[in-house]
Amino acid sequence: MPHDIEPRLLRAFTAVAEELHFTRAATRLHLAQQALSRDIRRLEQRLGTELFTRTTRQVALTAEGARLLLYARRILAAHDELAAAWDREDRPLLVDISATTGTAHRVLEAAREAAADREFVARFHSGLTGAAAEILAGRLDVSFGRLAGLDPAVRERLAHRPVRYEPMAVLLPDDHRLADRPAVALAELSGETLYAAAGNPATAEWTDLAERLFAGRGIGIAAPFPEIDGDEEFVRVVRKRGWSVLASADFLDVPGMVLRPLVDPVPLSPVSMVWRRGLRHPGLDTLRAAAGQLAARHGWLERPAGTWLPAADEALMRGRPRRHPDQPGVTGTCPTGHPGGGGTAHGRSRRTR
Hints:
By secondary structure, this protein is α/β, with parallel strands linked by helices. It has helices at about 5-20, 20-30, 35-45, 65-85, 105-115, 130-135, 150-155, 205-215, 230-240, 280-300, 310-315, and strands at about 50-55, 60, 95, 120-125, 140-145, 160-175, 185, 195, 220, 245-250, 255-265, 265-275, 305-310. Strands 5, 6, 7, 8, 9, 10, 11, 12 and 13 form a 9-stranded mixed β-sheet that branches. It has a two-stranded antiparallel sheet with strand order 1-2.
């Protein structure tokens, strides 16, 4: 057995093993599929065994591949913790807030005000699914969004703190039949088709939340569309295509459109602050403290009556703090559910918020 296998090869193998699809794994790793296939072949040659069976229709782990996956995950977790431990504490903290409005932006601004001597650099990623891959690759430190929408294997390598139950809304053209309502009941959207970032793999957690919300209500999701990069482009595409958009209550102004809260029930977008497990940085401590103070001041974690949220999201949001030696206050989970139960959206920078 070779003793010098590069973590890069194990990371490529783990991505394919978890996705069981080379194209999706390549997208997750931001690699060309040809380069990913080459890395897998190199690893198989080093180990002297096949790790996957491949047909034109599916990819499956061999018995040796399944055995390696257990070790690869532990090795990569240890590698990530080692990298985090040696991070320079004086470097800027890279924080994905997705947009210049909303919960994440407010947390970042509060942290900057509390620690003016530290540098927090904003990033504007398309969604938590994409941002989580960047965090695990070491190219990003913190993001915000719907944790329950991530793959469990990805969640296991992340730490998180619940921040807010964010009410959801709908963005309507100003000549829409419901545009003059102060609020829009979900039942009134029956027969409508809303844009919910379908087609953007980086926002898969938001599209999944929309599908759960719309199920059984007669509301459709707009056909997949490529990621829309930036606020200006988002405004242009949405107006040109005449879309109504599933959004969150804090959202950018779009000329010619109105934002209306959703009610009966009020769907919620669960926002958590997410970072790589094992990360040590004074800016992270400041950011976590700012999130906690804002949540306490504004009642962000007090769930109102008559709201909708999937049971899996509720369990993660209400998980009791699980103490770690290097991450005090990191939240775990508890098996809490709720009947009928909500996200943030966007094919542009992050979820359509």
